[in-house]
């Protein structure tokens, strides 16, 4: 039996990258993992791989901006599994034309709607269940850009991810007395498919030095397995070879 045996974990953005790795890590610890995302075929693939590894998973297709659909899934999990013990709000996007001078109002709204409003939709759906139980773990995927704004990520992404960090702290202020804990997970560059949406995708050499999705999965498992009295408020994690620090400026051909 794993540390999370008997627990139900719900992960959004679970069809790839950090969400997939986190779902697999939670399943390996014994949790029943509910996989949500927009691409059913990818959710089915992840669920099959979890089952092949001896874990338990089911899928619930979802666009996180749909608050009613999000609530319907939460209600279903309450009816069938007694509620959600661990909720990871991981779904997020960015857009190629992301600089201040290039981003459009519709694109800005789209990023904020998914990266912030979509996170809150899930939180609002599961909080009543967690309050009734007197415990619960929320893990919100922010970003290195949620602490350090970057021209690389652009204003919509940076602003939305900063907001997720603030939201996480607000939850701990209000809900810690109810046994609910929340973690703002702020990873630096992770070698996932979202990198392909950048205006200038990183090289294969640079990708090889980045964090791996499995690194974040291991961190998520650690957070979820921590004793109920322990709240990991923030995790700011980056590659050792951090492109935010390396080669940002040059003087006389020397990196500063």
Could you please describe the fold and organization of this structure?
With 256 residues, the chain is α/β, with parallel strands linked by helices. Helix content is 43%, strand content 16%. It has helices spanning 17-28, 40-52, 67-81, 105-133, 154-175, 204-208, 213-225; strands at 8-12, 32-36, 56-59, 86-89, 136-141, 180-187, 234-237, 250-251, 254-255. The strands form 2 sheets. The chain has a 7-stranded parallel beta sheet with strand order 3-2-1-4-5-6-7, with helices on both faces. Strands 8-9 form a two-stranded antiparallel sheet. β2, α2 and β3 form a beta-alpha-beta unit. The protein is globular and about 50 Å long. The termini are far apart. The model is unreliable at 248-256 (pLDDT under 50).
């Amino acid at each position: 039996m794993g540390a999370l045996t008997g627990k139900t974990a719900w992960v959004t953005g679970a069809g790839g990258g950090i969400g997939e790795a986190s779902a697999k890590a939670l399943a390996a610890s014994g949790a029943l993992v509910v996989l949500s995302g927009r691409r059913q075929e990818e959710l089915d693939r992840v669920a099959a791989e979890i089952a092949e590894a001896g874990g338990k998973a089911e899928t619930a297709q979802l666009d996180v901006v749909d608050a009613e659909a999000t609530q319907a899934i939460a209600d279903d999990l309450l009816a069938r599994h007694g509620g959600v013990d661990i909720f990871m709000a991981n779904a997020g996007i960015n857009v190629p034309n992301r600089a201040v001078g290039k981003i459009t109002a519709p694109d800005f709204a789209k990023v904020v709607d998914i990266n912030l409003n979509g996170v809150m939709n899930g939180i609002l759906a599961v909080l009543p269940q967690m309050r009734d139980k007197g415990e619960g773990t929320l893990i919100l995927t922010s970003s290195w850009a949620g602490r350090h704004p970057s021209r690389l990520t652009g204003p919509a992404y940076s602003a939305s991810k900063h907001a997720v960090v603030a939201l996480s702290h607000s939850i701990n202020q209000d809900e810690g007395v109810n046994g609910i804990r929340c973690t703002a997970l702020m990873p630096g560059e992770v070698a996932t498919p979202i990198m392909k949406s950048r205006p200038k995708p990183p090289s294969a050499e640079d990708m090889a030095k980045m964090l791996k999705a499995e690194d974040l999965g291991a961190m998520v498992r650690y957070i979820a397995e921590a004793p109920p009295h322990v709240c990991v408020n923030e995790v700011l994690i980056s590659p050792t070879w951090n492109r935010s620090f390396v080669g940002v400026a040059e003087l006389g051909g020397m990196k500063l």
